[in-house]
Amino acid sequence: MDVASLREEVGLLLKRIGWGAADMRHIEYYANMDPSKKIQRLWRLRAMQVRAIKSRLRDENPHHTEEEVHRLFLDHLDSLREENPYMDYANKGE
To answer: What distance in Å separates the CA atoms of residue 93 and residue 15, rounded to the nearest whole number?
Structure first.
């Protein structure tokens, strides 16, 4: 199958699941991205998510110390793992 036919087939498949042309461009961009940049973005996104969750926990529990907030954060991660066993990462304590 040539690239043009494959691209058209993928485009039709994505349309069936509700994606548009912009999504396809994003997929192409990401597929052609340098792997080290993908990892760099992944870690940056992870750090942003951790900060956002801890910030929310601090706002919800203003009387807690940083250690207590961190414990709440770890409890939150544990609850996510219970909901989705595929999230059982090797770095459980982070």
So the answer is: 40
State the Cα–Cα distance between residues 7 and 31, nearest whole angstrom: 13
Interhelix angle 21-31/3-16, nearest 10 degrees:
130
**Measuring CA to CA, which residue among 49, 38, 47, 34 is closest to residue 80?**
49
The rounded distance, in Å, linking the Cα atoms of 19 and 31 is 17
Q: Which two tokens stand for residue 74?
A: 């770890």
Confidence check: pLDDT of 38 > 80: yes
pLDDT tens digits, 7-28: 888 878 878 888 777 777 888 8
Q: Which tokens in the block code for residue 65? A: 């110390």
Query: Hey, what long-range contacts does 3-12 have (CB within 8 A, 24 or more apart)?
Result: none
